[in-house]
Design brief:
Length: about 325
Amino acid sequence: MSTSVWSGAGQRIYMQEVGTRDGLQNEAIFVPTEEKIRLVNALSKSGLAKIEVTAFVSPKAIPALRDAEQVLREITREPGVVYSALVPNVRGAERAVESRADELNLVMSASESHNLSNLRMTRAQSFAGLSELVKAVHATGVHINVSLSCAFGCPMEGDVSAEEVMAWCRRYIEELGATGVTLCDTTGMAYPTQVAQWVRQFKSNWPSTELTLHFHNTRGMGLANVLASIDVGADRFDASFGGIGGCPYAPGASGNVCTEEVVHALDLMGYNTGVDLDKLLEAASFLPDLIGHDVPSQILKAGKRLDLHPCQVG
Ligand code: COA
Ligand code: ZN
């Protein structure tokens, strides 16, 4: 292939796998603990920058992840991979720190209605609770990332303004000292020009804070949103192997952008994701049997662009 069509020029893009959290939380079936550990171990060997292993939430709310402690404790950790866990409250943070999470991913919604349905709190209550949480774990030195759900639109309220989103980012970064922020498109409402505007505003306000974009492919705009973000300086993306995922508390939510689709596209364009696509595809190939249904990944179905087929003549 001629290098003339490449545009990435080796630029580093950090891929963060969320399938074992965002994906499995949404499955009716309970994937056995040892199989979850096997999946995380396979993902760990594929060169991903970060893996959101699980969530320390109420086991009544999300029974699929009721084995969070055991999974996080028993995985084999690869040097250089950050092992993160989603936590909604102090109780979750204590469980995650005891299980040696490298990073706590705190969650709050940018929209009031989604926060009420997902976390049963107002946003002000969430912020107060998460402030307590940050104080409680401060001495451990664990990294704090804050995920803002519905940052590009809410399925109950509609548009969420950039000003609203940036105001919450400011509070988490400047008041609580968050090391990173993730802007989540929980139900696939983001579109490329909007995403570019949010990323530009964030980068100009907080150039040294880690920014992650978390897109769902609900309306087919996931990969376009990734590319639009990269064009304006973003370099970290959450994605799900197999393209699984979705929020149980958001009407119409569906899968995350698919890790292997993003990696496949970025590889072709000359970006450096650090991910071994074959290893990633192998991990994703275990999913249909484990969750009992087909997965959205187009690369699992079609193969890579240059996986050639015999020529059938006559
Ligand atoms: N870990 C384990 N158990 C927890 C917990 C945690 N982090 N947080 C709450 N619980 C338990 C409580 O002990 C209580 O159990 P009990 O009924 O046996 O006494 C029960 O959950 C309810 O706790 P409460 O403090 O009243 O909270 P709540 O019912 O308002 O729940 C959340 C709030 C957010 C903790 C809960 O709804 C939750 O975990 N939701 C999952 C959100 C999620 O993962 N969404 C998708 C990803 S964004
Ligand atoms: Zn999500």
